[in-house]
Design brief:
The protein is 0% helix and 38% strand. The chain contains no helices and 28 strands. The protein is elongated, with a radius of gyration of 20 Å.
Amino acid sequence: MPTFDADGCPVGCDNKDTTKSGTYTSKVSPPEGNSCSCYPGLLKLANELEVFSSTMTQLVFPDLIEVDAQGSNPAVWIDGSSSIQLTTVLFPKLVSIKSSGGMGLALGQLRAVNVSFPELVNITAGKTALHIDSCWTETLSFPKLVNITAATRYGIYVYQNDKLTTLDLPSLESITSNSGVYLQENNALVNLSLPQVVSVTGGAESLACLTNQRLKSVSLPNVVTMASLFLNGNTALATVSLPNVVTMGSLLLSRNTALTTVSLPRVTSIVGGTNDFGAL
């Protein structure tokens, strides 16, 4: 981790931008040519944050509390395919991310080692709320994230993150969307645990885990209502624990060749959908 000055910026940061303070209403996109961008004094961004910089290694928003974007693009979009040298992404005070028509927080092809959203509580989006795609980051932690809401598409979408071993969401309680949680081809991820989630809405993909080769367990100990559960091709998956689910719309388990334990002790009926236990 870098050392910081009195404004919360990395010492020696070559783009310390103090012109965007308080509430700022224009889009923020760190410039090319700098190795560090820091925005002390920016409290609320009433627009989009887009990161596409091939030279930047450090990105810090030391005082930002809220992002509220009104367009169709993601509210916070960090594109690692362009920002190939980015190692540090810090939002130490960010509490809320909102997008009226686009995704909420989108992380794509991110290589950064230090990624921190320690105070983030809410993500509300017009499309997918939390989108993590093709990242090389090993650990993503959102320790205070409580609510995820997506008007369309996914609440959480995690796809082809070959280095991701840990997705930490210890405080998450509610996922409201029309396609719930979707995890596919995250071949380093070992466990999916959502210990505080009570309700997961979503149609055919309320919770879908597909071809995550090292995924060994799925645990949602407090979920009561789940529209659907779809587990397919997770060849290391051994246990699925949903001890408090009472209502489930559909269940599909297929090609999970190591699966030995599926715990649904309170489910009395599965309403509709496909129930295929033929090839666990």
